[in-house]
RNA sequence: CGGGGUGUAGCGCAGUUGGCUAGCGCGCCUGCUUUGGGAGCAGGAGGUCCUCGGUUCGAAUCCGAGCACCCCGACCA
């Protein structure tokens, strides 16, 4: 992809509406633009990252035996009346009325819809377990949207639902999902913790929250460096640094570390909360109707994009991990009026694309400084610098966004060197 | 929903005891020069000063109402 032909509107100045690094950098790097409070457009660069995150999640979900589908956004009121949540969800649910005055909610979560589907289609214990998931835009009329896509009113979520015949089956699938989540967040390059949590409105007995460590996180927890035990911080701990209590780990008695965190994933053991309310049953071996034992598993996909930046950036811009970077390689020909520089860059561009490597070529007739600044802002992991200076000795330069030092490589070895880095 | 703040060019802002043609930096367009960390000079385009109403000879500026956005809090699968 050539910068000259792409839609990546970068900004030098920090928009006054953005307070935290990820929000500022997503705006400055041309990843997102605001349409209304808590409602954002993903521009091509941001969308690429979003898609990469989705793909990581998709691979791990499929590997865990889940199947992807797509549920509707419009939910008829009657369905939500079955569980009593039409009233319980209240103003947080955005509502619309059709031409026949029929009421719908814009889906803030999909337990009702998925349970309705499964109760219609699954009749026998022989068809269980079933694990289904989707990527979808969720709507929640948050009291206070903030921090860009971190807490939006419209956002992308991966939600997954498991249906089992008994608690034992659920336990197996639940553990599979927890492991899949650990794989996902590891692949995304996160430092994260898993903490047992309240299950809140969704209900059920057991739940785990997946928390990315970041100073700007809206929540906080204590963790033990020795045994990895975690517990959520109480509100009074969050608010006053000074008055924060010192907690000892209940398992190994060492003092625990306080950290702010961003919730990126949440798993719930739902039991029969929804299946019972909605009369969603299957027949067991004895021909008796039994309610499905359910689990649900959510990941904030668009939030992950912001959380990644929150955890990995510097004064100059974003630092993407290879796994979700919008492009893996950025080519920086510093003087496109030099024919040899230009030709070398074009050749690398073609060769990398032929190898299936995502690459962004800064083919603009801009000064070196401008290109370097934009490259650092965009945060593409591998920077390849092609300059008149290096051409003289038949070399190019490779710099990792995450490191300061550059390595010089003989021109003929460039491609293989980059390929080795991409695969690392 | 309570408290605080802000709305002036694409972005960041100044101008607000009422006054003349509404300004600065960045960005954008044209030309020349420049070319390893957001270049220089010259020329140029771009504004319902958030909206509506009121006061006044005259309103970006004063008054009233509304809207939007941001921050703190409560809330949040």
Can you offer a commentary on this structure?
- The protein folds into 2 domains: 3-314, BirA Bifunctional Protein, domain 2 (2-Layer Sandwich), CATH 3.30.930.10; 329-423, Anticodon-binding domain (Rossmann fold), CATH 3.40.50.
- Strands 3, 7, 8, 9, 10, 11, 12, 13 and 16 form a 9-stranded mixed beta sheet that branches. A 5-stranded mixed beta sheet has the order 20-19-21-22-23, sandwiched between helices. A 3-stranded antiparallel beta sheet has the order 4-6-5.
- The protein contains 13 helices and 23 strands.
- It is an alpha+beta fold and 424 residues long.
- The model has no long low-confidence stretch (mean pLDDT 93).
- It has helices spanning 21-28, 44-63, 77-83, 85-89, 111-121, 167-187, 235-239, 273-277, 301-311, 339-354, 368-378, 388-392, 414-423; strands at residues 32-36, 39-42, 67-68, 74-76, 95-97, 103-106, 130-139, 154-164, 192-196, 206-213, 219-223, 230-232, 257-271, 281-283, 289-291, 293-300, 313-314, 317-318, 329-333, 359-361, 382-386, 395-400, 406-410.
- 32% of the residues lie in helices and 28% in strands.
- The protein binds one RNA strand of 77 nucleotides through residues 9, 11-19, 34, 36-37, 89, 92, 108-109, 111, 138, 140, 142-144, 146, 151, 157, 159, 199-203, 207, 218, 266, 268, 296, 298, 316, 334-335, 337, 365-374, 376, 385, 387-389.
């Amino acid at each position: 992809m050539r910068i000259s032909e792409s839609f990546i509107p970068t900004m030098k100045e920090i928009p006054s509406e953005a307070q935290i690094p990820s929000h500022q950098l997503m705006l400055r790097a041309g990843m997102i633009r605001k349409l209304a409070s808590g409602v954002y457009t993903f521009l091509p660069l941001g969308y690429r990252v979003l898609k990469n995150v989705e793909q990581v999640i998709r691979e791990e979900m499929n590997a865990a035996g889940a199947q992807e589908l797509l549920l509707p956004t419009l939910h008829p009121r009657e369905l939500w009346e079955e569980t009593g949540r039409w009233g319980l969800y209240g103003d947080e649910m955005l509502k619309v009325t059709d031409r026949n005055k029929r009421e719908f909610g814009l889906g803030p979560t999909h337990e009702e819809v998925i349970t309705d589907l499964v109760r219609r289609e699954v009749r026998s214990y022989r068809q269980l377990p079933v694990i289904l998931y989707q990527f979808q835009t969720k709507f929640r009329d948050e009291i206070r949207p903030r921090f860009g896509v971190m807490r939006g009113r419209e956002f992308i979520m991966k939600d997954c639902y498991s249906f089992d015949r008994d608690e034992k089956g659920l336990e197996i699938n639940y553990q599979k999902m927890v492991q899949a989540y650990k794989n996902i967040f590891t692949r995304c390059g996160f430092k994260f913790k898993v903490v047992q949590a309240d299950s809140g409105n969704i209900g059920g007995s057991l739940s785990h929250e997946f928390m990315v460590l970041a100073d700007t996180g809206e929540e906080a927890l204590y963790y033990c460096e020795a045994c990895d035990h975690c517990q959520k911080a109480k509100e009074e701990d969050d608010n006053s640094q000074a008055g924060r209590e010192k907690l000892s780990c209940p398992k190994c008695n060492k003092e625990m570390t306080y950290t702010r965190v961003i919730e990126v994933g949440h798993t719930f053991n739902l039991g029969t909360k929804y299946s019972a309310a909605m009369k969603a049953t299957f027949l067991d071996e004895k021909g008796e109707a039994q309610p499905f034992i359910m689990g649900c598993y959510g990941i904030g996909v668009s939030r992950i994009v912001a959380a990644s930046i929150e955890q990995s950036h510097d004064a100059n811009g974003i630092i993407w991990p290879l796994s979700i970077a919008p492009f893996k390689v950025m080519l920086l020909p510093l003087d496109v009026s030099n024919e040899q520089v230009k030709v070398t860059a074009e050749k690398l561009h073609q060769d990398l694309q032929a190898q299936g490597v995502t690459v962004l070529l800064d083919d603009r007739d801009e000064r070196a400084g401008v290109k370097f600044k934009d490259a650092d802002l965009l945060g593409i992991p591998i920077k390849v610098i092609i300059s008149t200076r290096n051409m003289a000795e038949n070399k190019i330069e490779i710099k990792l966004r995450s490191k300061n030092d550059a390595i010089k490589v003989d021109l003929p070895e460039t491609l293989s060197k980059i390929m080795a880095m991409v695969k690392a």
